[in-house]
Every structure is written in structure tokens, then in C-alpha cells.
Amino acid sequence: MDKIILITGASSGFGKAIAEKFATDGWNCIVTGRRADRLNALVAELQTKYQVKALPLVFDVQDRKAVFAAIENLPAEWKTIDVLVNNAGLALGRDSFENANLDDWDTMIDTNVKGMMYVTKAVLPYMTARKKGHIINMGSVAGKLVYKEGNGYCASKHAVDALSKAMRIDLLPHRIKVTAIHPGAAETEFSMVRFKGDATKAKQVYDGFIPLYASDVADIAFYCASLPENVCINDLTVTSVSQADGIYIHK
Fold first, then answer.
1. What ranges in 25-173 are assigned the alpha helix state H?
2. Residue 87 structural domain
């Protein structure tokens, strides 16, 4: 089989855009997520529009048993995964520490941190056996700088940054690349999820400036994965021209 990429959280946003971008170059795609209807629609699009093979895996990255069951039971021809994109993640709530919701904290840590660790751990045997592979972890500017009322989300993305560094060190003997991409404000479902369906609050995040789009981040991920075998981009922080970091945005 040709080159294979596995993308978590592929039913929307960055994940969907990354699947489409790689498919344009003939990559076969394993797409994972919780929403079967969206995954099946994406698979149909990838196969029809780009003439590639696509395989949907429906699971929640928070569910350790489901993660390992799905990946360990991949058909043999799908196990030669060249690139893993740990994209599944979310922010929930924007509250000061004393008012933050404990369930929101649990969900962010379980998804953004533990989910990434589970999926990586499940995929790694296929890469270490071949002494080849590339792991791309989707971080955030929130993993580089803590901002007001970002507590649990910032903590989870700082963990993504630290784990990416740890993976890079530990996997050196296996010649596995590890890239962390840390986007700034990007117009996806992110803010709708963060503000729990409040469309007014979600829209205000992007009012007054041109943010990043999912396709921009997909282009960056594709570039990182397209470099020669001896080259690895370790860490990238990416914002729109109107944003300096997790705090300063010019509107």
C-alpha cells in the first residue's frame, strides 16, 4: 500500500483539512473520531474526490481500551503507518481558576493529554518495527504562554509541548520524527466547543481580524511531513499576522 497517515479528531477542523491535504498527494488515510456520520462522509469524499483508500475508526481517544482495540485490530495492510497526527483535542470553558468546572478540566486532560498518549503508544509498535515514522502533535499557543482564564486548557497544551519533547528524545534510536505544531487563533469549531454552543461568544473571538484557517494548518503539517528523511522540524508556533502570541491580538 502507498503512504498511510492516521489522523485523530478527523471529523472536522484541522483533522479534516489535514486528511484532505494529504489525500491530494495520494496518501491513504485512517481517520478517527467520535462522530461516525461525519467520518463516513469524509471517507466517501476522500475515496471519490482523491481516489485514495480511507478507513474510518470510530472511538473516543479518552477511552484507553477502545483506542488500543481499534489500532491493534487494524487490517495488516493498514499497519504500516507513516505519519500519525495527534489532532484530537478541545478547550472547554473560559473561567478563572476558582470558578472553573472540574468536569471541564477532566475532559481536557483526558482528551488533550492522555488521549494523545494512548494513541501514540498504540501506534508506536508499527513505527519502531520499521525504524521509521513521523508523529505530529497539535499543540497550541496556549502551550507556550499561559493567559488569563486559560488554566486547564493551557496546562493540557503545555503537557503536549513537554510530551513532544520527551517523545523526540526517547524515540531517537528508532529514527522516528516528532513535530509539534502550535497554532494560534484559528476559525474552526474550537470556540463553539469552548463556549458550549454560545455562537455569540464564539464569533467574538474572531471579530476584527483575519485568523488562521484549518487549511493553513493542514498545509504546514503536509510540509513538515514532506521533508527528506534526514530532516525534522521539531517545533513550530504559528499565528495569523494579527496575533503575536496567546495574549496579544490586534483588532
1. 36-50, 64-72, 102-108, 116-128, 151-170
2. 4-238
Which distant-in-sequence residues (6+ apart) come within 8 Å of 161 by Cβ?
A: 139, 143, 144, 180, 182, 235
Tell me which residue of 115, 133, 143, 116 sits closest to 236, measured CA to CA: 143
Q: Which residue type occupies 15?
A: G
**Average pLDDT over the chain, rounded to an integer:** 97
User: Percentage of the chain with pLDDT > 90?
Assistant: 94
Write down the pTM of the prediction: 0.96
Instruction: Measure Cα distances from 95 to 101, 110, 141, 148, 195 in Å.
Output: 8, 19, 18, 8, 10
Q: With respect to residue 172, please indicate whether it lies within any of the assigned structural domains.
A: yes
Give the total number of structural domains in the chain: 1
Cell of 90: 478541545
244 domain-assigned: no
- Is 223 noted as a catalytic residue in this protein? no
Catalytic residue, from 50, 118, 126, 153: name it: 153
